[in-house]
Amino acid sequence: MKIISVFFFLLVAAFAGNFNQDFDITWGDGRSKILNNGKLLTLSLDKTSGSGFKSKGQYLFGKIDMQLKLVPGNSAGTVTAYYLSSLGSTHDEIDFEFLGNLSGEPYILHTNVFTQGKGGREQQFYLWFDPTKDFHTYSILWNPQSIIFSVDGSPIRQFKNLESKGVPYPKSQPMWIFSSLWDAEDWATRGGLVKTDWSQAPFTASYTNFNADQACKISSGSSSDSCSKKSSGNSWLTESLGQHWARKN
Predict the structure, then answer these.
(1) Which of 94, 95, 58, 91 is nearest to 79 (CA)?
(2) Catalytic: which of 93, 163, 185, 239?
(3) Which of 16, 168, 207, 222 could be disulfide-bonded to 115 (CB atoms 3.0-4.6 Å)?
């Protein structure tokens, strides 16, 4: 049993990214910290400022995993955002946003997809566990057919490519990975009725075990075609959920 446990630990470690190598802290004036030799990253929010980070590289299709432990206690008014996005007025974006709440009330997981600068595709979910007690895995699988949002390996939403019906789909703009912790008391909790309690600050969210091994990282001079050909043997490039998957799960 010890041999199996050690092997599993080494396997996880081999696939976990390093925040020093994979990300840059982009704002927050010291409120973002990379710890434990790059294995842990924390974001903090106080009344002066939030904080955030961004991947060094861009991705065009792939499966992106990140483990998060969200702000504990009274997190009302705070938003922890973890998303893929390109830049500009016609950007594409794939969002996880975690809307804080009063102590004892459930977090709301807010999802959205932007294409060509337009969103309006929100879906929200109540998490079935306390996301502040331990790390949980939040995954985005993005391929030419589908975008699948998953929590701890369980799909919660699928956004399918319906270009044949006139619905734009993000497929040509490489995206960076972003995350931020910020104050959104004007809308985040009960439509802004519950405000941020700054006596609870600083608010802190933690990140570990980033994994983009099953993703197509764009380097200078590469294209979407070369990216797809390079990854043509990977099953995630064609993965999609059946029509009635939500009912079955």
Answers:
(1) 95
(2) 93
(3) 168
CA dihedral 186, 190, 191, 196 (to 10 degrees): 0
End-to-end alpha carbon distance in the chain: 32
- Catalytic residue selected from 97, 105, 163, 239: 97
**43 token code pair:** 């974001």
Out of 112-126, 150-164, 195-209, 213-227, pick the least confident.
213-227
Alpha helices in the chain (DSSP H): 2-15, 19-22, 224-230, 245-248
- At 104 the pLDDT is 82
Q: Please give the mean pLDDT across all residues of the chain.
A: 88
Contact assessment for residue 231 and residue 143, using Cβ atoms and an 8 Å cutoff: no
pLDDT at 242: 77
Indicate if the pLDDT at residue 161 is higher than 90: yes
Q: Which strands sit side by side in the sheet containing 146-151, from one edge to the other? A: 32-35, 40-45, 203-218, 58-69, 136-142, 146-151, 154-160
What residues contact residue 116 under an 8 Å CB cut-off, 6+ apart? 90, 92, 168
Residue from 40, 33, 13 nearest 135 by CA? 40
Structure-token match 């979407």, residue found? 224
Indicate if 97 belongs to the active site.
Answer: yes
Answer yes or no: 93 catalytic.
yes
Cα–chain-centroid distance for residue 234?
21
pTM equals 0.88
Provide the residue type at 206 as one letter: S
pLDDT in tens, 82-125: 999 999 999 999 999 999 999 888 999 999 999 999 999 999 99
